[in-house]
Amino acid sequence: MAEAEALNILGLRQALLAIERGECTALDIIEACFDRIEAREPEVGAWQLRLSREAYLQQYRQQQAAYEASPLKGLPVGIKDIIDTAAMPTEMGSSIHTGRQPVDDASCVAMLHDAGAITLGKTVTTEFAYFKPGKTANPRDLTRTPGGSSSGSAAAVADGMVPIALGSQTAASVIRPAAYCGAVGFVASRGELSLRGVQPLAQSLDSLGLFARRVEDIQLLHALLLRQAQPLSFEAEIKPRRIALCPGQRIGESSAEMNDALNQLAERLQAAGVDCVQVAEDGLLEQMVEHHQRIMAYEVARNLAYESRFPDQLSEPLSQLIDSGLGLEHRHYLDSLLAAQSGCEQLWSQLGEVDAILAPAAPSVAPLGQGKTGAPHMSRPWQAMGLPVITVPGMQDDAGLPLGVQLIGRARNDALLLQQALWLESLIAAR
Amino acid sequence: MAEAEALNILGLRQALLAIERGECTALDIIEACFDRIEAREPEVGAWQLRLSREAYLQQYRQQQAAYEASPLKGLPVGIKDIIDTAAMPTEMGSSIHTGRQPVDDASCVAMLHDAGAITLGKTVTTEFAYFKPGKTANPRDLTRTPGGSSSGSAAAVADGMVPIALGSQTAASVIRPAAYCGAVGFVASRGELSLRGVQPLAQSLDSLGLFARRVEDIQLLHALLLRQAQPLSFEAEIKPRRIALCPGQRIGESSAEMNDALNQLAERLQAAGVDCVQVAEDGLLEQMVEHHQRIMAYEVARNLAYESRFPDQLSEPLSQLIDSGLGLEHRHYLDSLLAAQSGCEQLWSQLGEVDAILAPAAPSVAPLGQGKTGAPHMSRPWQAMGLPVITVPGMQDDAGLPLGVQLIGRARNDALLLQQALWLESLIAAR
């Protein structure tokens, strides 16, 4: 039987298996999660709002038979506070929306509830999923940023408070906090998962994000959110034949320790028989960073029309983003959209038979301090191209801080990317 | 001065000009709109919910100075009841959401309010913007369908109840009701206008729609919704050099009277010096109809996850759509997405230097009866391709019923399409 004190760090599938085998009950795991939250939340600050233990247990017991018969057994999920929930406010990290109570659950939330998950609470987001941080600290080192914008979801999952959480990514809002906190973070291909009820920031960039501690749990969530008939069926790992390495410098600033980590991983990939090639040194990805910024500024300025009425309640970086978006000419925005599309075609055409791209998930370990969430450039190119991406944790620096890498797949081949990430996860864990 | 009884049928720009010239006041126009609504609404049934005359005037007078200084002067707009509004429920044409009160205005609504428009009411939509009709009749012939899903917006504008209205299109939900009722209906390029707060149906197909009685008013709305610095600046008409004619039969069933109308219009285009070519007879657009249906079914089944809990409150056609979407394999959905993209490239590459495509906006005049909203196939190909489209009214059959044609532009060239539609509108009016 799993030890009581370790139940909160089981992965979702591990927990379901332990329940199925009678090694523990769902209530044991729920209690262990609340124990962890009560011990750690004062320091970590992952939650914007959450159910009390009593309220959670009451909800569970009222429908215990239904939860016991459900795929997810009444286990808890954290929901980023940019995603609408009918039972709790959604404040988007902004005082403009204090106490804002949506009337509906987002479709992704409804699907998880239908599968038997219970929303334990809303996790901290930066202001409108942009730059201004909330109260969350990095659970691996409380003096560092957890990254953003899905700060609370990444921290809560990495710290063992919940097995799974939802987030969203427009720039680097899932991949980076997952890297900094040491969690698995997955961003679906653009258009792949329903965003109904997820507050939009930039329609050409937004994508749903999933957090877990193991890749197999992302596979399960992904299947549930596609309403697949057999979400619990197992998709086996696939070893990639050829990987394109993307050194951080191809995109922008990258720390020496991150460069070393990627090189070490490349050696291990080759030792495992994976053919490794390099992404061309042609400036393409740096251009994509610029195009991403332009698309984001233009679209945010239109989506946040209502919030523009309250300039005193917008942070300086967000005001600047909106102003720069309003100042952009439509034809320059259009140029960037077209450049992102043709850049994507050019990239994959150069890479040929490559299965996936491997790159740093962030420029370094999580920076010290909590005034900023770290630089987002490592994610901008793939997000501009609408590709599926996953942060695979497990690498670390000499001090033991997480150094996340990201695996990038072909558009709309999310399931295949997850199967390859499952293999990469094993490789990293096997050292 | 404009005559009192005609004020309700002025276009939006015409009304603004009449106010500026002192020929009438905004209040005169508002009163004329309410006179028309009170006379006609019992028969037309365009409104799901609306302000009383007294409530509207109270809102206007409370901020009269601000409205007088605003671009839109406090004039009324109708909002399709699939678009969230903070001051009135948004019920999406479904008993599942009776009395559902959103907490926010959609961004498009907020932008119109910022420009000085007042939401007069919510216009009738079919169930979740799909097939099941609401109570609206065709104002041009009350025994016929107004089309759908933006039934109320099209009818209210065509009948002179409001100068402008918002809608949305996933299949044919703007272009077809505009054609049946004799209004201008515009569908923006996919991704071009913010859909924040517009309830999604299918993310790869949804687009915002605008209704007016004159193309110049669509230009004004379009500029406002892009937060352009000078929305009232005039964009002059542009005569196309070359138009591709798309006979209805290239897409599917098309009535003899519609075919005749398109042929007559082609003759007038050629007489006006426009080079006319024909869309190739290669089956491409019929294939696009199929791909559109498949994409829609797949995505609707995920977006309406919450509503799937209430099978007894879903219409038979919607239940069937969801079931067929749940039964679709992901790879077949993906095939259709790719086919829509490559079909779009193939089409424009065949057409070469063509400025726009001209096609029937619907297979015929509005069908008799109100149990169905007419066939949507004339819109499916362009919607699958994400193109901007506008219904230009003015043609009619021998009985005087509207026969709408649609002008289809290149993706993301919405402003240019509107300038060409302005020219086409003059040509049709000049007979």
UniProtKB/TrEMBL annotation, chains A, B:
<protein>
    <submittedName>
        <fullName>Aspartyl-tRNA(Asn) amidotransferase</fullName>
        <ecNumber>6.3.5.6</ecNumber>
        <ecNumber>6.3.5.7</ecNumber>
    </submittedName>
</protein>
<feature type="domain" description="Amidase">
    <location>
        <begin position="28"/>
        <end position="418"/>
    </location>
</feature>
<dbReference type="Pfam" id="PF01425">
    <property type="entry name" value="Amidase"/>
</dbReference>
<dbReference type="GO" id="GO:0050566">
    <property type="term" value="F:asparaginyl-tRNA synthase (glutamine-hydrolyzing) activity"/>
</dbReference>
<keyword id="KW-0808">Transferase</keyword>
<dbReference type="InterPro" id="IPR023631">
    <property type="entry name" value="Amidase_dom"/>
</dbReference>
<dbReference type="InterPro" id="IPR000120">
    <property type="entry name" value="Amidase"/>
</dbReference>
<dbReference type="GO" id="GO:0050567">
    <property type="term" value="F:glutaminyl-tRNA synthase (glutamine-hydrolyzing) activity"/>
</dbReference>
<keyword id="KW-0436">Ligase</keyword>
<dbReference type="GO" id="GO:0016740">
    <property type="term" value="F:transferase activity"/>
</dbReference>
<dbReference type="InterPro" id="IPR036928">
    <property type="entry name" value="AS_sf"/>
</dbReference>
